[in-house]
Amino acid sequence: METVAYETIKNQIIAEFEKIIGEPSLIGESEKEKSDLDMYHLSAIDEVIKEMLQIKADRAIVPNDPVLHLTHERMNKFMLYINKQPVSKSFFDYFFNSPKAQRKASSLSKFRHCVNYFRIVAMLRYGSFKRALVELSKEDDVPAILKDLEPKSPDEIKNTEGIIQIDEIPSDDLFLLGYIAGTEPEKVYEKTISMLQTLVGVLEKGDTFPMDTFWTENDLPRQLIMNHFSEDVRKILPSKNIEKFKDLLKKTEQLKSSCKLRQELAKKKAISNTHRYLTAHRIDIYFATSMRNPMDFLEMNKFVERVMKDPSLAPLNLNGFDPTLSYTNDLRAKGLIECLMLKRSKATVYVAGETDSLGKDSELATTLAQGKPTIVYVPEGETFNKRADTFRIRHPLGMQIELSTGVAHGVLVVRTPEQCARLLFDIFTNNMEFEIMDGEQSDSNDENYYLIEKNYSKSPYRIVTKNLLLNNCFWNLYFDGKEKAKNGLKG
Length: 491
What we know:
Elements: E1 3-5, H1 6-21, H2 36-53, E2 61-63, H3 72-81, H4 89-96, E3 97-98, E4 103-104, H5 108-126, H6 129-136, H7 142-145, H8 154-157, H9 185-205, H10 211-217, H11 219-229, H12 233-236, H13 242-257, H14 259-278, E5 285-288, H15 294-308, E6 320-321, H16 331-344, E7 347-351, H17 358-369, E8 374-377, H18 382-394, E9 399-401, E10 408-410, E11 412-414, H19 417-428, E12 434-438, E13 448-453, E14 460-465, H20 468-477, H21 481-486
Parallel strand pairs: 5-6, 5-7, 7-8, 8-11
Antiparallel strand pairs: 1-2, 3-4, 9-10, 12-13, 13-14
Helix pairs in contact: 1-5, 2-3, 5-6, 9-11, 9-13, 15-19
C-alpha cells in the first residue's frame, strides 16, 4: 500500500470539508499570512483530524487511503473549529453513516464518496452547496425530507390501474387531425395528383425542366406520398419507372376520394381519445412536438410508440400523452387540454425538429419551470449533431429556474428512442447516475459546477455557480419573507 505524509492527507480531508460547506476557507494561505486566531483554528483542526486518523505524530506517514474514524462528535468538532454550525445526528447518519446505502465514511476514499453524494443532493434539490448544508444540517429526519430522491423499485412505480385504452387511428391518416396540415386535405391531394401527373408526362415525353424549383414547390405533395407509401418520388425519378408513378397516381386518386370520410372517422376516434386522456387517473409523460406536415405526424406517432413499448419502460405501464392521437374541434380548448396534460405529467419529452416553434418551446420552458425532468430527443444523423450540441450546451432554454425553489434545471438530450425509454425508466425509478463537472476544467471563464447525467444523455441536469457574490445575492434575494415561510426555508 502506498504511503504519504500526514500533511498531504490532512489537506485532502480539509478539501472535502470545504466541498461540504460550499466555500474555500482553509487552504491556499501561507503560514506567515495567518493571524493568531487562524493559527488557533489550524491547531484545533489538526487535533480533530488526528483523532479521525488515530495518529499523534506531526510527521507521521500514513496510507494514501487511510482508515477514517469519523464520528458525529468529531464532525461537529471540525465544523465548530471552522466557525460553522454543527450538524444533526440525522444529517450525519444519512450522508456519512448509512451502510445499507453504501455511504459510510470509514476511509478517505469512502468519505469522498459520501461528500460527493451530499453535493449531488445539494445540486438536485437546493441549487447551492452552502444552502443545502444550512437547510439540512439541523433537521432531525433527513431521510424523510429526501425520501423522494431514494431509488424505487419498478413495482413501486408501476401503474396498477391499467394503461389508457386509446382508439387506434391509421398512422398515415393522423395528419388529417392537424390544425395546419389537415385544414384542406383535399387540396393537398389535388396538388399531389397534379405533381404525379406532371412527372408521368415528363417521363413519357422525355422532357426536362428545372427540378430544384419543382421540388421546392411540391415539398408538401412529396411528403404526402412518403407518408402514405414510404416512397420518395424524388429518388424514384432517376429510374424513369413510369409504371411506378402511374401506380402512385392511381392510389393517390383513391385516397382523395375517401379523404373526407377518413378524416371524419379519425376525428371521431381522436375526440374519444381526448376524453380518455382528460379523465385518466394519471398522466406520466407528455410528448411535445410541432407538427406542420403529414410526415411530422407519422414520425411523431412512431417515436412515441417505440418509446412507450420499449422493453425497458413498458413493464411500468406508464401513461403517455400522444398529441397525434388527440383532437378537439375548438382550437383554444386544444391548448387548454395540452396545458392540463403538461401540468399533470411527471416528465416531458420534447421532440426536436429542424426548427423550433413557440408552442413547443413554451412547453419545454414550462416543464423546467415546474421542476420536472425534461428530455429533448434529437434524431441521429450529421444534420442533427450540431442541433443536439446546441440543446445540450448553448440553447437559451436549455437551463431554466424552477420557480418554486430557484434551482436551475437543465434538459437531457438523447439521440434514439431506446435511450429515451431507458432514461425515462431511470427518472421514474430514481436511478439516474450523475457526476459533478467543474466548468473551469474545460473553460477558464466558466465559473460553474455541472451535474452531468452519465449514462444516456451526458447533459448538464443542474448547475451551481461558483460566483460567491451571485450565490449570496441569489439565495438571499430570490425569496421574499412569505415565500421563505411557504417553502420552509431558513434565514
